[in-house]
């Protein structure tokens, strides 16, 4: 059965995707016949001279969104062109991209090419044509893959998401007025300080395809794969985030590899955690935390982390981890420099308002001294003992009814009412010996905390709201009476209704509580 895909068609999906990027980013301009996206300021009539700085151009096959059009913007790429899925753009389109930002630009164009054979050939041909037409153009081929231990007999290291660090740093550099020669030199230095390794649990499915380009056996992961649907350099056992990241870092830094990243204790690094398509945000957060922790355990200082969908492989379930050694102190400010490129994930950084010492206030809620001095206290010991006996009865009796309550809850709920109540009872039983039973307001506040923290969920929250509202409404001056307790319980029901949104008759706990309040209100202290 074909995989379900929300795509216009395999023929139109790239073009419609580019139209969407242009529609959502007014600062970009699409020239559709060349699948060419340009930073709009480069083309505005009468103002293109303002943009006479070195222009960065890149591109490649589609299916890696948001790469590469998402990195067009002031401070990153001046233009990019897209091929069809996993297919290099034709030389004509690439030449159009170079010409759009390079004609009449004396500062020149730097074309950044990912190290894949098709890209090298097509981009190289376009560069030569543009040079022949009189434009000043240089080309840098990026490859930072650490999957292979030996490069002999191969096409070299593949260009992966780590190259986005080059886009950002060199883009900010030329935005500040650097020359073409300085930009090329910085690319080479960055390339020598970069390493990327990937892992995936599944292949990707091409638009219109019926199955993934490769299958990964259950319980296994592909290590060292690229972004074009190819398998990895090895198959490893699947494991926890800790185990997977440990294996990735070992491959990234292994000493017998000619492609290793020579991380050293004391290094400062920037890290990119690239979702290749289908990892949940929670998985990404867990993996990112583990990557940072393990790098720190190696004595490496993680200065910046960029996590998200940066350079995908359609719907592949996997990630790439790129590490940049910040060997030049100028690189970090360039990473932090502003850009209008919509896909660049800028972290929340310190500023002059947030860079001071952090002082965490006391986060524990307590009664004010005034309320403690005027707390409601039982005037008779018998009242306190009655409250204690009620609580002890609940603690002792509820366990035997846990399963009955769960069964009843399956009719109109999710079958865990008894189990949820038992979580609260278990904690309450540990508090029984220390409960200040002569002070019912304090007891009710404890019950509210236990409900919220131990029971959790919707019911725990509602019980907590009820107990807290009852405690707050108890008069500190009135004598204990049925009327006072009825008013307090009424306040608890009203709080449940206010925050829970239900009323009597909606088949909730209020259907039992409200009649009880009404009966209490109707009686007298003599009953």
Automatic annotation (TrEMBL):
Its EC number is 2.7.1.28, 2.7.1.29, 4.6.1.15. One of its GO terms (biological process) is glycerol catabolic process. One of its GO terms (molecular function) is glycerone kinase activity. PROSITE patterns: DHAK, DHAL. One of its GO terms (cellular component) is cytosol. Residues 9-344 form the DhaK domain. InterPro entries: DhaK_dom (IPR004006), DhaL_dom (IPR004007), DhaL_dom_sf (IPR036117), Dihydroxyacetone_Kinase (IPR050861). It catalyses: dihydroxyacetone + ATP = dihydroxyacetone phosphate + ADP + H(+); D-glyceraldehyde + ATP = D-glyceraldehyde 3-phosphate + ADP + H(+); FAD = riboflavin cyclic-4',5'-phosphate + AMP + H(+). Transmembrane segments: none annotated. Gene3D superfamilies: 1.25.40.340, Dihydroxyacetone kinase, domain 1, Dihydroxyacetone kinase, domain 2. Catalyzes both the phosphorylation of dihydroxyacetone and of glyceraldehyde, and the splitting of ribonucleoside diphosphate-X compounds among which FAD is the best substrate. Represses IFIH1-mediated cellular antiviral response. Homodimer. Interacts with IFIH1 (via the CARD domains), the interaction is inhibited by viral infection. This is Triokinase/FMN cyclase. It comes from Cherax quadricarinatus (Australian red claw crayfish).
């Amino acid at each position: 059965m074909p995989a379900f895909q929300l795509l216009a068609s395999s023929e139109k999906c790239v073009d419609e995707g580019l139209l969407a990027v242009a529609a959502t980013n007014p600062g970009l301009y699409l020239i559709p016949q060349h699948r060419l996206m340009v930073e709009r300021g480069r083309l505005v009539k009468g103002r293109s001279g303002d943009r006479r700085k070195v222009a960065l151009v890149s591109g490649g096959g589609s299916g890696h969104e948001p790469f590469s059009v998402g990195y067009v913007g002031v401070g990153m790429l001046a233009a990019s062109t897209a091929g069809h899925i996993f297919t290099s753009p034709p030389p004509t389109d690439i030449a159009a991209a170079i010409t759009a930002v390079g004609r009449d630009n004396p500062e020149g164009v730097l074309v950044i090419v990912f190290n894949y054979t098709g890209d090298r050939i097509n981009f190289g041909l376009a560069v030569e044509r543009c040079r022949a037409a009189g434009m000043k153009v240089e080309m840098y081929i990026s490859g930072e893959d650490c999957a292979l231990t030996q490069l002999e007999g191969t096409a070299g290291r593949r260009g992966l998401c780590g190259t986005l660090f080059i886009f950002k740093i060199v883009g900010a550099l030329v935005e500040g007025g650097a020359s073409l020669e300085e930009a090329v030199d910085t690319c080479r230095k960055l390339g020598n300080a970069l390493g990327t390794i990937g892992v995936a649990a599944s292949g990707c499915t091409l638009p219109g395809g019926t199955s993934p380009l490769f299958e990964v056996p259950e319980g296994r992961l592909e290590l060292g794969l690229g972004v074009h649907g190819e398998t990895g350099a090895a198959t490893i056992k699947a494991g926890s985030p800790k185990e997977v990241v440990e294996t990735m870092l070992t491959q990234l830094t292994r000493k017998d590899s000619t492609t290793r990243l020579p991380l050293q204790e004391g290094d400062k690094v920037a890290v990119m955690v690239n979702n290749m398509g289908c990892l949940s945000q929670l998985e990404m957060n867990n993996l990112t935390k583990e990557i940072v922790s393990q790098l720190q355990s190696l004595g490496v200082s993680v200065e910046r982390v960029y996590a998200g969908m940066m350079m995908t492989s359609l719907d592949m379930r996997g990630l790439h981890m790129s590490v940049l050694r910040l060997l030049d102190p100028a690189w970090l400010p360039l990473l932090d420099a502003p850009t209008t490129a919509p896909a660049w994930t800028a972290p929340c950084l310190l500023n002059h308002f947030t860079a001071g010492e952090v002082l965490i206030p006391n986060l524990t809620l307590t009664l004010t001294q005034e309320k403690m001095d005027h707390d409601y206290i039982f005037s008779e010991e018998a009242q306190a003992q009655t409250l204690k006996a009620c609580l002890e009865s609940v603690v002792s009796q509820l366990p035997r009814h846990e399963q009955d309550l769960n069964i009843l809850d399956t009719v109109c709920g999710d079958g865990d009412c008894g189990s949820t109540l038992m979580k609260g009872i278990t904690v309450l039983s540990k508090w029984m010996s220390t409960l200040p039973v002569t002070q019912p307001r304090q007891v009710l506040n404890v019950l509210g905390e236990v409900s919220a923290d131990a029971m959790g969920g919707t019911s725990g929250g509602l019980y907590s709201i009820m107990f807290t509202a009852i405690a707050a409404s108890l008069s500190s001056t009135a004598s204990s009476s049925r009327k006072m307790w009825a008013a307090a319980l009424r306040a608890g029901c009203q709080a449940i209704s206010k925050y829970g949104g239900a009323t009597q008759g909606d088949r909730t706990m209020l259907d039992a509580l409200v009649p009880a309040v009404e009966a209490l209100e109707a009686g007298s202290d003599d009953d």
